[in-house]
């Protein structure tokens, strides 16, 4: 496995002229079997005997249409029998080359991020971090890895960050939205301190195995479960602001990935109104909460809202802020957004250049 450290970032003018994709999902070709060479024998045996803990309502079900199967578009299954997202040549053909992707941020999912067995989780995420660099980043200069951590064990997470953060092949630290507690809680602050010290943004991707999908328990239908993931993003944004994370770490940036964008418009107004009425409860929140939204948070465009009047999307983007949006494809998942068709109305070219490229150049450590 490769352990080289890249001391200097890639200059922005050296990044190709194409788009920057903030959400590409790689997958180990054979799942946990692919990760075993990166794990100590103890954890290889553990994986064989006990597998990964999960408490999802459909833990072993991958039938159409919920997972389509494998959460992927049907043409993304490689001929070699691996999982969608595992074949770099197919990723190039279907997305990187076809859509002139200058840079893609990988978002590995499903291995150890919020494992109940935190020691096993730490071993899994470390394996994922080694694997994605070996299998993708070192083979394809247009790709960057996410530094995956087992965030329920802050001490192990900090150790993993310190070990990987000097390596410029990692563009961000990745969390998942289904955490044990709202992410503003103090138990997670050591992670934010390290992220701020290394200048790494934090991507929060929807999903994870930690708990029920809604604040009231398990939903009855996938329609409810899929949409409820948006609510987890609202919860974390409010927690990070009201617990004081954005005030104490003002340079820290959060990217809310696959959680929608339009909901942030009315939420900003509501939390400002609450703060004006009950600000004495949170004296550490020194400015209107909407200020922190505007300065500390970014939103990925996938899955983007599709209003009945497509031109209304321009007004949505204006209110969210053109400088707060990052294009995301979600390749190779079933709701993949091709950059040529993702926005079903004519958009201002100069503004869309921010969404498709320049915002990411200013955010990610290149």
Automatic annotation (TrEMBL):
<dbReference type="InterPro" id="IPR032465">
    <property type="entry name" value="ACMSD"/>
</dbReference>
<feature type="domain" description="Amidohydrolase-related">
    <location>
        <begin position="20"/>
        <end position="366"/>
    </location>
</feature>
<dbReference type="InterPro" id="IPR032466">
    <property type="entry name" value="Metal_Hydrolase"/>
</dbReference>
<dbReference type="GO" id="GO:0016787">
    <property type="term" value="F:hydrolase activity"/>
</dbReference>
<dbReference type="Pfam" id="PF04909">
    <property type="entry name" value="Amidohydro_2"/>
</dbReference>
<dbReference type="GO" id="GO:0019748">
    <property type="term" value="P:secondary metabolic process"/>
</dbReference>
<dbReference type="InterPro" id="IPR006680">
    <property type="entry name" value="Amidohydro-rel"/>
</dbReference>
<dbReference type="GO" id="GO:0016831">
    <property type="term" value="F:carboxy-lyase activity"/>
</dbReference>
<dbReference type="GO" id="GO:0005737">
    <property type="term" value="C:cytoplasm"/>
</dbReference>
<protein>
    <recommendedName>
        <fullName>Amidohydrolase-related domain-containing protein</fullName>
    </recommendedName>
</protein>
<keyword id="KW-0456">Lyase</keyword>
């Amino acid at each position: 496995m490769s352990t080289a450290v890249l001391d200097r970032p890639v200059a922005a003018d050296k990044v190709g002229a194409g788009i920057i994709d903030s959400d590409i999902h790689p997958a180990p070709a054979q799942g946990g079997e692919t990760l075993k060479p990166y794990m100590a024998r103890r954890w290889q045996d553990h994986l064989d005997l006990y597998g990964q803990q999960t408490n999802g309502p459909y833990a072993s079900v991958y039938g159409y249409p919920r997972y389509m199967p494998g959460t992927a578009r049907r043409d993304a299954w490689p001929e070699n029998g691996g999982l969608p997202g595992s074949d770099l040549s197919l990723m190039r053909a279907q997305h990187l080359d076809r859509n002139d992707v200058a840079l893609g941020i990988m978002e590995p999912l499903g291995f150890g991020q919020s494992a109940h067995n935190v020691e096993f989780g730490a071993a899994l995420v470390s394996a994922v971090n080694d694997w994605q660099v070996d299998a993708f980043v070192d083979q394809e200069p247009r790709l960057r890895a996410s530094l995956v951590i087992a965030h329920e064990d802050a001490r192990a997470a900090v150790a993993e960050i310190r070990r990987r953060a000097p390596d410029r092949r990692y563009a961000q630290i990745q969390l998942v939205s289904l955490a044990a507690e709202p992410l503003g809680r103090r138990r997670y602050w050591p992670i934010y301190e390290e992220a701020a010290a290394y200048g790494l943004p934090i991507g929060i991707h929807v999903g994870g195995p930690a708990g029920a999908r809604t604040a009231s328990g398990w939903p009855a239908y996938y329609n409810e479960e899929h949409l409820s993931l948006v609510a987890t993003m609202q919860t974390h944004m409010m927690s990070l602001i009201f617990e004081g994370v954005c005030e104490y770490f003002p340079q820290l940036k959060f990217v809310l990935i696959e959680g929608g964008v339009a909901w942030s418009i009315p939420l900003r107004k509501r939390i400002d109104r609450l703060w004006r009425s009950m600000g004495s409860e949170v004296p550490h929140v020194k400015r209107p909460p909407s200020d922190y939204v505007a300065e500390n948070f970014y939103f990925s465009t996938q899955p983007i809202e599709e209003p009945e009047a497509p031109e209304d999307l321009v007004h949505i983007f204006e209110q969210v802020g053109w400088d707060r949006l990052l294009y995301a494809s979600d390749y190779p998942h079933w709701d993949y957004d091709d950059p040529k068709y993702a926005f079903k109305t004519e958009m201002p070219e100069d503004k869309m250049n921010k969404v498709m490229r320049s915002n990411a150049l200013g955010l990610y450590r290149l």
